[in-house]
Each structure stands twice: as structure tokens, then as C-alpha cells.
Amino acid sequence: MQYNILLRNRLFIAMGLSTLSLSTLTSCQNTEEKDTAAVAHPEDVDDDGDGMTENEGDCNDEDATVYVGAEEIANDGIDQDCDGEDRIDIDGDGYDANIDCDDTNASIHPAAEEICDEVDNNCDGIIDDDAVDRQEWYPDADQDSFGDPNGGILACTQPEGLVEDGSDCDDNNADVFPDASEVCNNIDDDCNAIIDDNASDTVTWYQDADNDGFGNIDATLQACEQPEGYTSDNADCDDNNNNINPLAEEEEDGLDNNCNGTIDEIECFPAPLITDAMTLQNNMGNPGPYTFCAPLPADGSPCADLSTQDPTQFIYDTIGPPPDSFCIWMSYGDVCGPDATTPNECCYTMNVDISCIAVGRPFTVDGEMRTAAINHSDHWIRPFNVEILSLSEERRGLLGSMWIQAAQEEHASIASFARFTMQLLSMGAPPDLVAAATRAQADEIAHARTCYSIASQILGVDIGPDPLNIDGALAKGNSPREILISTLIEGCVNETFAAAEAGWLSEQCQVPSIQKSLCKIANDEGSHSALAWKTVKWILSKHSDLIDIAQQTMRQIESKRLSSPPQKEHSWLKMYGIASSKDRFDLQESVWKQVIHPCFISLCDSFQRQESLPA
To answer: pLDDT value at position 162?
Structure first.
């Protein structure tokens, strides 16, 4: 929160905003001087100040509202104008009772407008005569609820056989009226003065410029009858060449002669067909490629050219995401297709890998996260004192298992960094990156020993790792593209999550020895995260053509992250250095928005600025 406030203040300053001072309002008070009147004869004195004395006819010189010529107020029992009587206007409509034909209704008087209400509003003795709100009604001979505009009459109520709407253009045909649907019948059905316009049963016709019987889908006309030079078939992919159409024979001429979306037909090498995500994930240990098929486009267009689109998105559209919600598919290498041997489907053959979002750098082989099993050994334990008091056996068991999992993941990260070091060497990386990757291995050894020691202390039994299976660890994924993708996922995302989580836990932990260890882990993981970001920048500086791949990868990671938090459970774990699922979700949400996303945007912007510099 403090950071957000500071940022907000900085933005205010950057935008030149400042606090406006308030104006001081002043008020002034005017004073008036009173004139004094001269003393006069009592009957010549205007006692009530109404401008008239008793000698001038004021019949009540003690009331300023009473004098000759004053406005008479009806029904108040007072003679304001001194004419000897009071006005009577019971309904207050300005007309006295002697000329008002209904002095109990203010809307009825000689000057009122006559309206359709079966009342003599203007006191002329005739009810509803020439009422201003009379409506025009029209004869409806064909009874389609629309009348003949030439026979309208004015009336307060609807006369029998007449209707309100007088816009019928043919009052002898019940199928012709303004709301009718226009159809191809050479009649103006909807009364808009145009025959067969926008008829509901018109046909779409396509221009056939080369006269081969197949039209251009982008050149259309809507008409009831076939126009000259048009056809009903829109499958021509080159309407300027009558040798190119869906019935033409495919030739080896670099053209799509038969308009099936494929030039000179492509037959892909046979590969296993994948129809569901679980099958693909179970096959990740086997070398690809794999075949994926989708139905032909419903609009009749040819199968997509995946060389100009995102092949990974095609995998998601075809079989969906991996069963593990923290993992994402990644296609790599060339894509073959659409396969000419499957004309009734859009089939493509491609290589696929799986990458998983986690906290820290996992050791993955063919999309499978590998860790070593545990045994009762003290080889990885170092002296460590965990001050844990008053924990139930159930909680102690759960906490111990969580620290075992953390130890297994830290142990596996050693292998992950060893592979990363070799990948850097394979790309000719500078020595500072290689040295940092090597130091990271040593960090992970220390982290693993710490976690095994904490788990052993909590559970009261020595715990260590069994051998780690590394078969196939370097079998594939060693091109700059694959190394870039794995570094973004395992380093820029996962290591950044790990650094933030360890730092947050060090603030929540209430066990001093664990809290101290988490501070060390947070600092180390922060260095590992920085190494990943630095490596990505170096790779992109050498392979600028991979910037789109980096952006695509980050978009896929963002779109596949969990969209809803898990239920809050075991919130007490943070006091002992372990994040609950809910805590981890909330933390990752904020880290993504405040750290990872802005860092990646800045990284991409830096390359755009470099490209804009003069040579």
C-alpha cells in the first residue's frame, strides 16, 4: 500500500499536478438608511403604505393590500378593490362563478381548450366539439391493420372499420402493408415504393469474371434473379484464371490450382494422431512429432496456413489445455500441413513440449517435473534448531510433509541449473552468465540442505534424497528458441515467484531460525530471477527474430494462469515458513501485475528503442 501511494505521488509530480489552494470568500453587508416621513393630517396620511389615503378612497387604511384598484382575491371574504363586494371563483381558474360553467373544476372555463374527455371544457354547451386531441382514423378494407391514407377522418374514439395507421399502399391486399416482409414477387410488399428490395428470399450471387462457373467470394450481389456474369458458387480462389477452380487438376506449378488452400499438395510424414490432452501429456516422454486435426471451416474457406499463425493456439483449440492447470503446451520446429491425405479435415503435424508454471526452477523432462524420492539418510542434513512449540501431531505431520516437498523441489533445481549452465555454454554465452548459473547450483544445494534439515527437525527423523533420474534431460529443447522459452517460464516467471514468496514468508514466519533461512533463500532466488531476465535480454540481442516468440510465450502464460483463487485453508502454515494455496495465489497475482508484467513490457520496449536508433 505504501508503495502504491508513493507511485501515485510520483505520477502526480510527473504529470505536473499540484494541490490547488482554496480561495477565501469575503462577504459584505449593505446598510440602508430609513427615511423619516413628515407629520401630516391623519386622513391624508397613508397609514398602511399602499400609496392611497382614506381621503383618496382607501376603504381600509390599516391593510396595505386593500385600496381602490387593488387586485381582488377571490373567495377570501375581503373587498380588496373597495368596490363593495368580494369575487367568487371557487376553482381558482380566473373566471368568476357567474361565467364559469363548472366553478368546481379549474380546467373548465370559457377559454379552455376542448379535449376528448366527454366534458364541455370551454363552456360553449357542446361536448368534445373540435377537440384538439382528436385522432385521424383510416379505413382498412383488407383488414391488415393498416388503412388507406386517402380516407381519414378526425374523431375522439375509433370508429368501427377504421384503424390508427394510414400507411397502407394497397388496401385491397392483406399481404401488402408497411410491416410486411419483402419477397421476390415483383410487388412492393412493404410499401417503401421499391419493388423486391432487400427481399427475404433473395439469392447471393458471385461474380464469375473468368467464366469458369465458379465465382469470387468477395464480389457479390443480392438479387432475386441471377445477374449476367454471376454464379451461385463462390469457391473460385483466382477469378482471373479459368484454369484455377475447385474442379481443376492440381499441377506442380507453384499455384493452388484446385483451390483447396494448399499449393502443389503437401503430404505430411505419418505421426501419432492426438485427440485429447491427457493422451498428449502421457506421450510427452516419447519423441514427436504428433498429428492434430480439426474440422473443415464451416464457412467453406480452406484450412489455415499455420506457418503464418500460432500453431500452439491450434493445439489448444483442438484438444484443450494440459490436465495440469499450471502447465502450458509449447510447439516448436516446423509445422507440416494441412495434410493433403486428409481432405475432409484440417490436419497438421508438429513437435510439442509441455512447460509448467511453478515456484522456483523445476527440473522438467518432456513436460514431467522430476524430483528425487526421499530416504532416511543424514547426508544432506546440517545442524539446525527449529523452535516449534505446541503443534498437534496432525499439524506437525502436515508441516513436515510440506517442507519435504520444498526440499525435493530445491534438490531438483540443482539439476535444472546444471542443464541451464550447459545450455548457456551451447549458445556461447558470456562468462558472467555462465558463472552466475554455476553459483546458482551451489545456492540450490544450500537451500535443499536447509529444507531437509527443517523437515527432519519437525518430523523427528533423518530425511534425505534418493538418486535423481536425469534420463533424457538434454535430449531436445537446446535451440535458442527452446532455451528462450524455458528461461522465460522457469526463470523469469517461476524464479520471480519464488523470490517474492520467500521474501513474503520471511516477514510472516514466527520461528527465528526458519525466518533467517527464508531471508537467505529470498536473496538467492532474487539473484536467480535477475540471471534469467539478463539471459533473456542477451538471447534476444543475438536473435531479434525471437522477440515475437517471447511475447507469444508470455501471453500464453498469462492466459493459462488460474483465474480464480483456491479456498483458503491452513493459513497457519505461514507462521512456519510455508505458504498456503490461497496465500500463494494472492501473492502470484500481485507479483505478476507489479513485477513480471511491467519488467517484460520494459524489456520489449528497450528493443524497440534500439531498433529506432540511427545506424
So the answer is: 92
8 A C-beta contact, residue 224 and residue 240: no
Rounded-to-integer distance, Cα 369 and Cα 363, Å: 6
Q: Residue 205 carries which DSSP code? A: E
Contact 110, 125 (CB under 8 A): no
- Cβ-contact 379, 419 below 8 angstroms: no
* Selection from 300, 282, 280 nearest residue 236 by Cα: 300
* CB-based contacts of 35, cutoff 8 Å, min separation 6: none
Q: What is the DSSP letter of 303?
A: P
Digit-coded pLDDT (tens) for 192-245: 988 888 888 889 999 999 999 999 999 999 899 899 999 999 999 999 999 999
Q: Which three cell numbers mark 150?
A: 386517402
Given a contact cutoff of 8 angstroms between Cβ atoms, the answer to whether 599 and 423 are in contact is: no
Q: How far is CA 233 from the centre of its chain?
A: 39
Which residue type sits at 108? I
Taking a C-beta distance cutoff of 8 angstroms, is the pair 350, 322 a contact? no
C-alpha cell at 20: 490547488
Whether 86 has a pLDDT exceeding 90, the answer reads no
CA 362 – CA 417 distance, rounded (Å): 9
Does residue 217 sit in helix, strand or coil? strand
